[in-house]
Amino acid sequence: MANEQAERVATELLLIERDRERAVLDSVITELGTGRPAVVAVTGRPGLGQHALLRWAARLAADRGLRVRHARATGAERELRHGAVVQLTGPPQGPPHELPCRPDRLAGMAELLCAARSHPTLLVVEDTQWLDPASLQWLQALVRRLPGTPVALLTGSSGVPVHDSPSPCAADWPTAPAVRTAELALSPLSAHGVATAVELICGIAGDQRFTEAAVDLTAGHPAVLHTALRRFTGHGYEPVAGYLPELRDLVTAAAGDHTTRVLHGLPDAAVAVLRALAVCGDLLELPLVCLLAGQRHLPEPRLRAVLEASGFTTAGHAAAPRVHDPLVRARVLEEMPADERADLHARVAECAHRAAAADEDIAGLLLHARPLGTPWAAPALCRGAAAAQHRGEHAVAVACLARALDEPLEPAQRARLQFELAAAEVMTAPEAGDRRLAGITRAEHGAGRLRARAIDLGLARGNADWGRRAAAEAIPAADGGEQDGLIALYWLAEQTRQDDTELVLPEVPALPDRPADAPRAGVRAWQLALRGDDPDATRALARSALGGPADADSLVLPRLVACRALSLTDDTEEAERHLDALLAQARRHRTPTVVGRILGIRAELHLRCGRIGAAERDITAAERALPFTSWHPYAVPQLLSLRITIDLENGRRDQARALACAPTPAGAEDSVLWSFLLFGRALAAAADGEPAAALELLRECGRRLLRRQWINPALLPWRSLAARLAHTLGHRDEALRLSREELRLACRWGAASALGRAELGAAPAAGPARTDRLRMAAAVLRGSPARAAYAGALVELATAESEGGDRERAAALVAEVALLTAACPVPRLAGRVRQLGAALRSPAAPAVPDAAGHHGWDTLTEAERRTALLAGCGHGNRDIAELLSVSRRTVELRLSGVYKKLRISGRRELSALVRAMDGC
Q: In a designed cystine with 917, which of 52, 144, 574, 853 is the match (CB 3.0 to 4.6 A)?
């Protein structure tokens, strides 16, 4: 009973939305009972319910007392003569495979027609695409004899035979006008039909999202829908959106099973062509595809009809059909032996190469092909990898480069390819990339200058311990420029080592005071910058490192630390220009590690200059270029510190606190760069009103930096912040000691931004001289690139002036700060400015004056107003460009528009106008 119920449900499902077809068949059977013959063909792609409709008609005819004879053709009996005829007229004597070749090719027809005159007969023939030629001829002869005989022929087809033979469709049967003919082409279910099927099988109606998903996943295919939903209900699931992942998996499995069944029912020739099409896509024309499949003599029109009738292909361009479904492509190919599949991909790749197909397409073919041993294969894979990286498909790029290594290569080519693969693997398997880089540094042949580049790339990801060891081991075997580069990289890695434990390594020459080569000059500049020694020499060495031409083999890290050295000497514009050039080069060479590192350093530079928005854009881009999970643990603390500082500057204290408390990768504490994260955590703790915790974090930060002699206050002003916190907590001696040490080191270094911050940090502990200290800090910072620090100094000075009774001076300072924060929004400072403005009964931000102040002021855009206010307060075009994060040319164009709208001649009149409106 259960089986009968299941069969009934399955039949009802396959007959959903078949009312028109059933009406036609009901009419044919009714007319057959009155003696009218008919020929009806039911067609459609496999699985649309042809068999169910034919069997429904057979049961209906039998219920009405008609005689029903049934036959079904199969691919296995394609060569068996009269296979279908025997089923219609009665079984022969002897086994089926010994069926005799009858002298009368129409044997049994006379008896059938004679019996039908007294008992109307319905002949049902399923899968006519598999009819043997003899049975097809017999049926054609039968149709010619139908007039006046109560016989109806009902056929079903789900494909077209691949060999050239008459199509078994109703329109092609030779009939007389007295014989009724019809062709019923089945189509997939509509959305309403799918909803009906869901309710029929699941017992309840599906919700809207579930039903829409069922339509999309099954494309209304009744057989796939029935199988998937039966399995779905078997697991006890309900047709609701919460079970969509399970439905998706079950539909995929059911569609795969359906594909396999249909494939097994196709002729071998069609399957061979389908396999070639699954590999080729639409790269090659159909005759060439048939040649690759070993089926060059197949008639093309018939082949196209077979492929389209299978439901596996769509009409592509005029050249060839296309296998549209990835699941079908996978099922078509998975039953091939692996060596045959690899050989087919290789042959298709060779044809695609000769046809000048796109490199990405050729590379996709070569990924699954055996090694070709041709000179074009490896370059094509490399170009395919480059295209994949450009699209952000890093796993595909890694696969292409790894496959290229299977081709025969010269040692130098192999080493370079290993390097490119290691650079790509950083996004998918960083540890594997490190191992590959280590292999390059140990290679005895073919590595050449790649040894230094491999270490450079590993250091860019942050792997300082390995870089130091690898450089020391490679130096003895190197010579000339390569040795100089390795020495530079060794000392660069040495700088970030936290502990003093010495490994047994070959002795490495120290860096000379004035190296002549660029790599050692860049690292030497960074050494001096970290120790706060000789800013003039630091600047000269950094410029020497950055001055020469850079090519693909140039080391990146020495040039990058030279840029950082320039940023510490306050040559930020020059440093930024070189960083932009390095970034463009790294993007051309598609090295995400280097791109991420440069963006992180540029974000640090923007932060120093008070360009918070630009800093956030760069750190976000750095995270996209190389996620935190792909960085070496040593590099993560500095990146996290940047993000914490940016969040705090933007007033996002909750996000900063979450980052400060977030777990870090194992081993992150073993680098001196851990000091940066300690500093960031101290900033977050201070912002949360926890001065004691912040001070302890800064003390540990300072201990780590001093252990490695990183004492330059321009790098990390931990003493200034610690002095402020110590003063707040009543530790006056510690506050004085720290502030004096900061001032001494800042004076020795001489950079205005470092000296101004030191003066600012010393102010709280200066007692009666606090206001003088703040005035000094503001005066020094005004000429520095540290715009946010300058704005902060102005806020503190305005507060001190107000407390001292000079409210007019305080109001002027507040107005200037308002302009700075309007041009470069810093929410942390903007809030304090508003509070001060309210306390002084003065507008917090005169960036948008009253329109009555000048008849043309209200015609200016917001960008023009900001630019005009900054220019009217005495800022030069370069300062305005930096504050607004635009080019100088943009500033000039905006000012020209301002002059025209305000009907003034130049900057002097603009300054008078702004002063008259109390904007400065």
A: 853
